Write a sequence for this structure.
């Protein structure tokens, strides 16, 4: 079976590992990329019981819990230091009823509770760190009912510089979490330092692979050095990294994620106001396509309709939560003169390069494929992608895939209308809105089961077909993405699969 899949070009190493139950830290969690909310991007240190519980309630009311966002994660600045016996203590002004109460309240809503600590002597906000206190802190978190730990990298006492040093430091908390007996999703936040994509799969459920994100699409900032073009060997991961800076840094590592262990491109900025709607759509789509953790970072309680309709897009979340766990791969990136409206990249190479276009594609469950055409330039442009390039891993133009015809489903054409989103937000409830064809309830039925049943809302809107040997073409607006699911219509592979 493996051989025939290989011949069909559908196989990513991660799919095989998952099928065999190998790979990933053995806590059974994050079989698909984790989804949730973290307060940092919108609130920084301004944390409280009230913020977490009211946000969790809105996540339920707005249908976000049932869209799959199950973790509510408290970031830095919750601590008041250590008690005399050495255990961490929560700030009683911010958390007057204690942390176990927060966990209970979130659990009562059918959600899970995450917390933050640091593999250093201090957290980034300069509260007590957990280095040297791994066991006692893991026990404290488990005792409070914590289900998720984001584990940062500040003030690490210089314990970095080789993969082994960093591995050992992060493994201590991994072992300590395991020893509690409570399944706790372990989210490493070490900013790509010492190449976590090489070694973190067996100790953690996810690892940050870049410096911190900022709410900007593609602005260059000296505090976030390295664009990803150099290959990733960035001594200073930095912060204030734009969404596209991080996406480009991810491009060499699509094969490193797998069920149970994911690349984390950092929390989403959707809804925080620093990007246009088009840019947020691109940011969200690509985080889903490369199987990043999907952690919302906006103020859920002050969300507008367009933010809700991005975060709840069922056809894109179905890509994120696809069973194979295969990341999309950047197949090509071309630079075009900004006023050149053709996609003849050969002609454009080197001729006053200003606008950039990229094509990403990847395998999905059942032989489907994701394709994303990105326009990073300042003007709308027609982008063309051939089946030969989309399926280059399968053998390019000679592959069965390129010699088959495909149905094309637009992942954004069924976006929830503003009118429906506004009804939800005004009523604090999904029940008054007509969500037929624009929303998926993952609590009722998983994205994977929905895709297996060919639920139209998860496939996207059927917008056409590509003939064997053909191309996908679309006008793509500036900073936009044309994102589609391809499903095979007819071809040698389709016949072979139907016979199985
Ligand atoms: C701890 O690790 C063992 C061995 O890898 C695994 O079988 C077990 O499920 C883990 N327990 C928890 C709570 O993560
Ligand atoms: C999703 O389905 C569950 C289980 O049927 C139900 O309790 C919940 O209210 C539904 N959520 C939404 C937003 O429709
Ligand atoms: C606890 O929180 C309050 C209110 O935000 C703040 O004034 C105080 O400094 C915090 N205490 C510690 C020890 O951080
Ligand atoms: C340590 O002290 C804290 C705060 O006083 C208390 O809640 C906790 O139960 C103590 N733990 C142990 C192991 O004594
Ligand atoms: C590019 O081509 C499209 C479709 O042919 C056209 O609508 C658009 O105006 C052109 N844009 C520029 C900048 O030439
Ligand atoms: C693209 O431009 C190159 C260089 O000018 C030319 O050789 C090639 O034929 C063009 N291809 C298409 C499809 O127009
Ligand atoms: C929705 O929730 C907000 C915040 O709790 C509240 O101010 C508002 O009155 C609620 N609206 C409705 C219709 O219940
Ligand atoms: C809900 O929306 C769907 C899809 O647009 C439509 O077919 C259906 O008639 C609507 N139902 C109601 C009750 O308005
Ligand atoms: C774009 O794709 C179409 C097929 O859809 C093809 O005929 C055309 O030659 C392509 N254009 C370029 C410039 O590659």
């Amino acid at each position: 079976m493996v051989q025939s899949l290989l011949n069909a070009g559908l196989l990513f190493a991660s799919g095989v590992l998952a099928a065999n139950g190998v790979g990933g830290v053995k806590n059974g969690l994050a079989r698909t990329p984790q989804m949730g909310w973290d307060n940092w991007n919108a609130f920084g240190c301004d944390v409280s019981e009230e913020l977490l519980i009211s946000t969790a309630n809105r996540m339920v009311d707005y249908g976000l819990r049932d869209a799959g966002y199950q973790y509510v994660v408290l970031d830095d600045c919750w601590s008041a230091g250590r008690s005399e016996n050495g255990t961490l203590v929560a700030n009683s002004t911010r958390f007057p009823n204690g942390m176990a109460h927060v966990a209970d309240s979130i659990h009562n809503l059918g959600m899970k509770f995450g917390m933050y600590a640091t593999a250093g002597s201090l957290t980034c906000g300069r509260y007590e760190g957990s280095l040297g206190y791994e066991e006692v802190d893991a026990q404290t978190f488990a005792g409070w009912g914590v289900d998720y730990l984001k584990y940062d990298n500040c003030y690490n006492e210089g314990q970095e510089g080789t993969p082994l040093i960093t591995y050992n430091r992060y493994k201590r908390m991994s072992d300590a979490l395991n020893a509690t007996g409570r399944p706790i999703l372990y989210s490493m936040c070490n900013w790509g330092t010492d190449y976590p994509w090489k070694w973190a799969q067996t100790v953690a459920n996810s690892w940050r692979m870049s410096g911190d994100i900022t709410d900007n699409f593609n602005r260059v900032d000296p505090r976030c050095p390295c664009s990803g073009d150099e290959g990733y060997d960035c001594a200073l991961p930095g912060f204030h990294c734009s969404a596209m800076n991080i996406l480009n840094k991810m491009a060499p590592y699509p094969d490193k994620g797998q069920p149970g262990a994911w690349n984390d491109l950092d929390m989403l900025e959707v809804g925080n106001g620093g990007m246009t709607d088009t840019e947020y759509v691109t940011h969200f789509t690509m985080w889903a396509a490369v199987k990043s953790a999907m952690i919302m970072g906006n103020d859920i309680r002050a969300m507008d309709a367009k933010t809700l309709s991005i975060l709840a897009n069922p056809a894109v979340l179905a890509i994120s939560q696809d069973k194979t766990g295969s990341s999309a791969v950047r197949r090509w990136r071309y630079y075009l003169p900004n006023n050149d409206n053709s996609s003849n990249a050969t002609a454009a190479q080197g001729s006053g390069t200003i606008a950039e276009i990229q094509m990403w594609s990847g395998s999905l469950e059942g032989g489907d494929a994701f394709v994303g055409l990105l326009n990073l330039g300042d003007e709308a442009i027609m982008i063309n992608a051939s089946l030969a390039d989309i399926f280059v891993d399968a053998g390019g133009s000679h592959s069965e895939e390129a010699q088959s015809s495909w149905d094309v489903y637009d992942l954004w054409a069924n976006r929830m209308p503003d009118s429906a989103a506004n009804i939800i937000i005004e009523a604090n409830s999904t029940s008054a809105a007509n969500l037929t064809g624009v929303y998926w309830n993952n609590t009722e039925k998983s994205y994977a089961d929905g895709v297996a049943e060919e639920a139209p809302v998860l496939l996207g809107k059927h917008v056409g077909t590509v003939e064997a040997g053909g191309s996908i073409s679309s006008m793509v607006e500036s900073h936009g993405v044309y994102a589609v699911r391809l499903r095979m219509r007819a071809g040698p592979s389709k016949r072979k699969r139907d016979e199985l």
About this structure: The first strand starts at residue 35 and ends at 38.
